[in-house]
């Protein structure tokens, strides 16, 4: 059978990796897919750069629409990114009857419902393994490998840039701004790192995982998104002393009244495997009722790791493209007419535990007052750490840091308690609150 023809839109880091791995491993890939897979056309605004990557024998154009219009192309790979032109091109490719493979998490997290509906109506596949955690086959695991399970929760380190920054902050005791500058200098963080450090990239990925884990629509606008920009080295150090590490987690969880969907820094017990994922690596923990806890670890970004996921999708599409669309794996794992309308819960309804740090006057009765407020609101304390005032503020200091770990409570209750604690005259500075996940 003649090779299936693929058009590639955007040949930057991931696009070059895809082209190179597909060529290098073509024989192995053909044995798996049942026929060859060839990128025969590439569109990139930088035609010279594209030509340098692909050499001769591949058509290179600057206009992506020429690829979509080519009747010989069966699959379009979209590696442009963003919600703008990428969305228009994906929709045009679908309406031209092309299957689409994309790494574009932002596009799917925000416009996935519209895109998947259009693809289903046209009978084409939109495949997106590379959109979440780069080379880790987490979409495959959630949609197919764990299909027997009632999935209970997912917690993942799904942004390499922030995990690298947090690892450096912990290892070297440095503050966020210092490490960010260094990460940019070394090329680990983008010149504009805001999507990464503000938690948006992780929230895009968590949104996609939430949809395929629970069979709900993608709803990025309902995700709670908090990054790492306000984290201080002090809290990383105190967390360490209490047996925890701080990680930026993407969490989605089935709760009695709905679904939690949130990205924020979290204390994780240092003994958990997830707490030991260092540098730019990614890891996702999935808990299912039948399988228990499973862990997926690997490179979440980079040229060939992400290409690995893109090509896995190409192989899937190649095997399935002649199949009756009803026999394919549904885009969001559940049949479109069997989707759930479980709501995404507001943060005030989320149940979790907390790390609190407050600067307090070093006087008799202060600890009793603080713990009294917690007790009156039904919040149970898990651990308390208080340093000598001298140790924190130098000789003669009259205030000190009080750190409290709580057991689970509703976030709405914690908000009320924090307001009350903050108004105590002996609490001298804004209270730092970081959520804590035991991941049992
Ligand atoms: N910028 C992302 C990260 C990779 O740092 O993990 C692409 O999603």
Question: What does it look like?
Answer:
With 440 residues, this protein is of the alpha/beta class. It folds into 3 domains: 168 residues, Rossmann fold; 162 residues, Dihydrodipicolinate Reductase, domain 2, CATH 3.30.360.10; 90 residues, 2-Layer Sandwich (Alpha-Beta Plaits). It has 16 helices and 17 strands. The strands form 2 sheets. Strands 7, 8, 9, 10, 11, 12, 13, 14, 15, 16 and 17 form an 11-stranded mixed β-sheet that branches. A 6-stranded parallel β-sheet has the order 3-2-1-4-5-6, with helices on both faces. Helix 5 links the parallel strand 4 and strand 5. It is elongated. The structure holds L-homoserine. L-homoserine (HSE) binds next to helix 8.
What labels would you give this structure?
440 residues, alpha/beta, Rossmann fold, Dihydrodipicolinate Reductase, domain 2, Alpha-Beta Plaits, 3 domains, 6-stranded parallel sheet, elongated, binds L-homoserine
The termini sit apart by 50 Å
Number of strands: 17
What portion of the residues fall into strands of 2 or more residues?
Answer: 15-25%
Poorly predicted residue ranges: none
User: What structural category characterises the helix and strand content?
Assistant: alpha/beta
The coarse silhouette is: elongated
Name the bound molecules.
Answer: L-homoserine
Number of domains: 3
Helix content: 25-40%
CATH architecture name of the largest domain: 3-Layer(aba) Sandwich
Briefly note the CATH topology name of the largest domain: Rossmann fold
pLDDT averaged over residues: 96
Number of helices: 16
Instruction: Look at the structure and name the CATH superfamily of the largest domain.
Output: NAD(P)-binding Rossmann-like Domain
Biggest sheet overview:
11 strands, mixed
